[in-house]
Design a protein that fits this description.
By secondary structure, this protein is of the alpha+beta class. The strands form four sheets. Strands 3, 9, 10, 11, 12, 15, 16, 19, 20, 21 and 22 form an eleven-stranded mixed β-sheet that branches. It folds into four domains: 7-58 and 466-506, no CATH class; 62-90 and 201-462, atp-gated p2x4 ion channel fold, CATH 2.60.490; 118-187, no CATH class; 513-630, no CATH class. The chain has helices spanning 13-16, 30-54, 170-173, 204-207, 314-323, 325-331, 362-369, 387-390, 465-478, 480-492, 499-506, 513-529, 543-560, 565-575, 579-597, 607-617, 619-627; strands spanning 7-8, 11-12, 60-63, 65-73, 121-126, 142-153, 156-167, 183-187, 198-200, 217-231, 248-250, 256-261, 268-277, 286-289, 295-297, 335-336, 350-353, 357-361, 392-401, 415-423, 429-435, 441-462. It is elongated and about 145 Å long. The two termini are 45 Å apart. Helix 2 runs antiparallel to helix 9, helix 2 (30-54) runs antiparallel to helix 10 (480-492) and helix 13 runs antiparallel to helix 14 (565-575). 29% of the residues lie in helices and 25% in strands. A hairpin with a 2-residue loop joins strand 6 (142-153) and strand 7.
Length: 631
């Protein structure tokens, strides 16, 4: 290696360009070593074994892009409705409670033949919101109910018939249970009818009437209200091309009809979808159709509260979830989609068609979104409406993934999971018109129904060396955590017994620099008073160094003395260190060494510390009289 110059422009290069490195204290205690190595091992196991080998989080998630189309068909006897010999399998209208053609059993029928809901007590309001003696009762104190409302707690109640709302308070019911927070419960039985209308059977072409196909969506009408309109004002010369009425107005007469589409929940949906995941720099793209991969169906672990702004229904939903806990736990598991309907499991009428997608009965889609399935369509709301009469929105998520345990290289075969959820919209409807031949009148159709949105999403995991290196680099940084934890244990774990010694090694104390500055300032003043320059090589700020410097100077002067024997002996006597002074100097060095090796953590309060204090008292003897005056 070529020799470097030692000085440039009078600057010592070894001093200016010297290399600074981190200083480590080697603490020779096997307990700390074992703790540190154990922590490092745990971190390595977590990162390498758990994160990389088991969870495979070093793989890169490449987003999936996809598209889906869906079409519906009416219930059939396992055949294609377009085949001439195929027959439909509709439920008789007399067995559908939402149809006016329904023939209710005598026990469930009203005078008009409609079906009544099963009467149950459901919390509708609280006297006090979240009272500490009734903490699970939260919400407003106004009960919305059409039926019987009872007020009280436990086995003590008073009740009233309500058709609208009532305040849940002693003023509204009296006080059936003194000094006890109370609640209101509503029993909507005889007044909560399932809304009925004339039902008709529709097939797939009729279901798409008035709409253009939109990729990734499907609309299923449930209630259609129709009314006639005639042409209103037509601008011409007679009215100066100005109209004050609407272009179309209601026709003469009171023509208006409402009907339900029968058996919507038993319609089937054929969903055909495909996806592609672009893998730049990671090999060929992953793509395919649903027919190429195994599909799974899953349900939700909770029930949907359709009264999203009504806190009074939370208690009812929580009660239902508790009753259905085992069924909810089972439905969230991934259910493989079979190649044919087997009438078994949670989704009895869901199956795949080779090369042509997956078939889902609408009731199975509803069950994915809420375990109550098709019954949700006829849950009567506070205003007497239902989802069947008002419509709703359901989102179907088709999620592709190849996530698998122990798949370090990302070679697992992709699969997709179908799930569904309700979007909290109170209603959904569309409108379209049917014109007569003359163009003078039209029939407006107000169509409520279920809008189904289909999203193809997910991610495919692939292996890249760059991402693996990033994870491993992060792992190396995480190893520093082992040192941090070891330092913490070293300083605060009383079971180790020598934490004070460890602290001295880790947090090495220094002198009091404020005191040092004051000492140097004082010495400079003394030097100036004697008319001599301050020289830090001869005038020492440290009392120990000052004492040693004093005796060493006298010894040098004695050796160099050419005077009389008496003068030489006087200098020798002044250079002599007494036993007490030597002990004080040794104690001073003992304290300084303890700051380096931590041998004696309590070195300031023992006998040696007292000797150092005694040496400090003699400070003036060494630096005030001798050292300054002998420069």
């Amino acid at each position: 290696m070529p020799k470097c110059p030692t000085k440039i422009f009078g600057l010592d290069l070894d001093e200016v360009l010297g290399y600074y490195t981190i200083k480590y204290a080697h603490i020779r205690d096997c307990r700390l070593g074992i703790i540190q190595k154990a922590l490092m091992l745990l971190i390595l196991v977590k990162i390498c074994a758990l994160t990389i080998v088991y969870q495979c989080n070093h793989l890169v998630d490449v987003p999936v892009m996809g598209s889906a189309r869906a079409n519906a068909q009416q219930p059939t006897h396992d055949c294609n409705p377009m085949d001439p010999d195929c027959t439909s399998d509709f439920t008789p209208l007399s067995q559908l409670p939402y149809c006016t053609q329904f023939k209710a059993p005598a026990a469930d029928a009203e005078e008009d033949g409609s079906r009544m809901l099963q009467a149950t007590w459901d919390r509708c309001a609280c006297e006090h919101n979240g009272h500490h003696r009734l903490p699970n009762c939260t919400g407003t104190n106004m009960c919305q109910c059409r039926g019987e409302v009872r007020y009280g707690h436990g086995d003590t109640w008073t009740s009233k018939q309500v058709d609208g709302s009532i305040e849940c308070s002693n003023e509204g019911f009296g006080d059936p249970l003194h000094k006890q927070p109370k609640e209101c419960q509503c029993k909507q039985g005889k007044t909560a009818k399932v809304p009925q209308a004339t039902c008709e059977y529709w097939d797939a072409p009729a279901m798409t009437r008035g709409r253009s196909p939109v990729p990734g969506t499907l609309f299923l009408p449930t209630r259609i209200t129709s009314f006639r309109q005639k042409e209103g004002c037509k601008p011409d010369e007679s009215n100066d091309f100005k109209c004050t009425t609407k272009p179309w107005v209601h026709a003469d007469g009171d023509f208006k009809s409402t009907m339900h589409v029968a058996d919507v929940e038993r319609f089937t949906m054929l969903i055909n979808q495909a996806f592609s995941a672009d893998l730049p720099g990671a090999g060929p793209n992953v793509q395919g159709r649903s027919a190429d991969f195994q599909g799974f169906a899953v349900g939700r672990p909770d029930l949907i509260d359709f009264y999203t702004k009504n806190a009074n229904t939370k208690g009812r939903i929580a009660r239902l979830e508790k009753e259905d806990a085992a069924e909810l736990k089972a439905i969230v598991a991934e259910h493989p989609i079979p190649t044919k309907a087997d009438d078994k499991g949670d989704f009895k009428n869901t199956y795949s068609i080779a090369g042509n997608g997956d078939v889902f009965e609408v009731s199975d889609i509803l069950r994915m979104a809420d375990i109550r399935g098709a019954d949700v369509l006829d849950v009567v709301r506070g205003d007497g409406s239902t989802m069947r009469t008002e419509g709703g929105v359901i989102s179907i998520d088709i999620t592709y993934t190849n996530k698998a345990k122990l798949d370090v290289l990302g070679n697992a075969e992709p699969h997709y999971v179908v799930s569904a959820k309700y979007i909290p919209m109170k209603y959904y409807k569309i409108d379209y018109e049917s014109m007569d031949k003359a163009g003078k009148e039209r029939i407006m159709h107000d169509v409520h129904g279920l809008l189904i949105l289909i999203n193809v999403q997910g991610a495919i995991r692939v292996f890249t060396m760059a991402n693996l290196l990033v994870v491993l680099t992060t792992a190396m940084v995480s190893l520093a955590l082992a040192n941090t934890l070891t330092d913490y244990i070293m300083s605060y774990a009383p079971c180790l017994g020598v934490t004070d010694h460890y602290d001295i090694l880790k947090y090495q104390p220094t002198m009091d620099f404020s005191d040092l500055r004051d000492r140097i300032k004082g010495l400079k003043k003394k030097c100036a008073a004697k008319g001599k320059p301050y020289d830090s090589k001869k005038v020492k700020a440290s009392v120990c160094s000052s004492a040693i410097n004093h005796f060493a100077t006298k010894a040098q002067e004695a050796q160099a003395c050419k005077g009389t024997e008496e003068e030489k002996q006087s200098l020798i006597d002044e250079a002599h260190i007494s036993h007490d002074t030597m002990l004080q100097i040794i104690c001073c060095f003992e304290q300084r060494l303890n700051r380096l090796d931590g041998m004696d953590a309590a070195n300031s309060d023992d006998a040696c510390g007292a000797q150092v204090l005694e040496l400090k008292k003699q400070r003036e003897r060494f630096d005030g009289k001798a050292t300054v005056g002998e420069q």
